Amino acid sequence: MIETKYRSLLKSIVWRILSVINGFIVAFIFLNEFYQSLKISIIANITGFVLYYFHERFWNSIKWGKK
Question: Rounded to an integer, what distance in angstroms lies between the CA atom of residue 3 and that of residue 61?
């Protein structure tokens, strides 16, 4: 079973939305500053989105562990 690029992209977007929320909450707890926390979580998650997409595509190309 091969996952489509669209599915990988959608999974990445949903995961990143959850990560932005989580990152913001953690940053806000430590910084107690709304805009600084928001900037940190957004920048970190844009790069994380790109890394996750290519990570998924890479693992999808490996046949090991698939039936």
Answer: 9
Q: In the block, which residue shows the tokens 């992209």?
A: 9
pTM of whole model > 0.85?
no
**Distance (Å, whole) CA 26 – CA 64:** 36
What tokens appear for 5 in the block?
């690029």
Residue 9, judged by CB atoms within 10 A of its CB (0-12, 13-18, 19+), counts as middle
- 15-43 pLDDT, tens digit per residue, is 888 888 999 999 999 999 999 999 999 89
Q: Compute the distance between CA of residue 6 and CA of residue 40 in angstroms, rounded to an integer.
A: 27
